[in-house]
What we know:
By secondary structure, the chain is an alpha/beta fold.
Amino acid sequence: MQTQQKGIAAAPGIAIGTIWRYIPTTPKIQTQKIAPAEIEEHLQHFLAAQAQVDQYLQRLYHSTLQTTGADDAEIFASHLELLHDEEFEKDIADLIRQQESATFAVKHYLDEAAARMAALDDEYLQARAADFIDLQKNLLQALNHQPLISLINAPKNCIIVAEDLTPSETAQLNPAHVRGFALRFGGRASHAAILARNLGIPAVMGLEHLSAAKDETTAILDGSQGLFIIDPDESTLNTFKNEIINTENTAKEYNELRDLPAVSQDGIDIHLFTNIGSTADLHLVDDYGSEGIGLFRSEFLFMSTTAEPSEEVQYHAYRQVVEHLAPKPVILRLLDIGGDKPLPYFNFPQEENPFLGWRGVRIYTEMRDLFETQIRAALRASAFGNLHIMVPMVNDISEMRFVRETVAQQAEILQSQGIACNPQLPVGAMIETPAAALITAQLSTVCDFFSIGSNDLTQYTLAIDRGNSKIATQYDGLHPAVLRLIAHAVDAAQVTGRTIGICGEMGGQIEAVPLLFAMGFDELSISGAGLPAVKQLIRRLNYRHCRELLARALNAASADAVRELVRPLLTTSKDHSS
């Protein structure tokens, strides 16, 4: 009998295949203390396992480089960096010298590292917890003399059903055999999801009830809608077979739009940028015809290690992105951490509400060495392309003055050392609080550009914790109060001659696009593969009609009322394009 459940749409596409359940071998952990005479033996066991995993990750790196490219291969380069991280090696050795077994030391250390990442409030950084678990799994398998390759022989036309897949397991998948995969854990920002998207393998994650999925049963996976259907009836099968044909036609339409501008029916254009969370996401710019990067999150460099990244490490990461995009713009968000996103090597104070506490630009004066190191790395990278830097959580002009003074000071030092940089590096502010939105005109005196961080702006305007499941449905960027603040900021930026974009999730929200377009944004920066759909919509819109709609939306009584206003326009635009 047909059953259906809804999960997280992790990798787009529709798959029809036969279920194959994947249950990995559970490694043994020696929890009892070892004898002093065994310490050296366990140290050697760890070193041998480390060498074996190194060879395995090297093979994965080179095979991924050939199949999906350098950006995905960087996932395994980062695993190799962690494997040989000095702090990691030292802490494992210290645990073993404290008479912990090699298996316990590896499990304990990487469990704690993964837990720190999973506790963060950033979806991308939360997903990095899986990288620590992946490395842990590989090391434990090596310590237990178990094979490290487990999915390379998955049967043809299968849909893999599992609790979870690590990046190294996902990289082994053969798209000619594996139609898709359904997981209990994971999300869109996980490396397994990123790899699946790049391999063209549909994936649904966050499925809580997989016990009904039996081997060799026919199933349908809709990675675009997050649906997993077990034992579908004939009517459902036919529906999804037709949907596969429609999807292929849509993909052709998107491909035809790739190099066309985002310009409305009446000739008004807007730039479409991409958000990236690390160098591994660069393919998103190439694949969808993006005009630049509107948000390059720098936190991945700081959160994935046990020590502060050096100036050289940061410089090479920023330079890689800037050179890849040149001459297109890259907007690097300066380090955005705090009580909700703590660094493992820095003691943050305990705060009752870290979202309203010591975070973003507020930490820069006290963590001055860390801040100046990032500024120097960014300035050096600016010599290789069109780099801008953006300051998070700005509320006051004095904060921007401090950042600009620091940039000027560090540029002067670099130039005195004969190191190339752009001393006129553009510096902008994120508009993430109602206070910043209301004083955008005043901030323009110390800002070269602005970007609306709609996720936090919505949260702070509505006083709703977007991570609280009990009230998450009330978190809505289409609330008229949020729209009014955004429109006010855009108007102020335009009057003062500053460019303004939006880099939150709203930028790719189809219902919001006509309103954002009407407000007069210079650019929308969009997460993931959402850019083609936004471009297609804008090319169908009429700017004058959108302006009329915006005037009504700003005076609407609720987010639902705004949706009712927008819906007919979306339907009309679609019909006119047919």
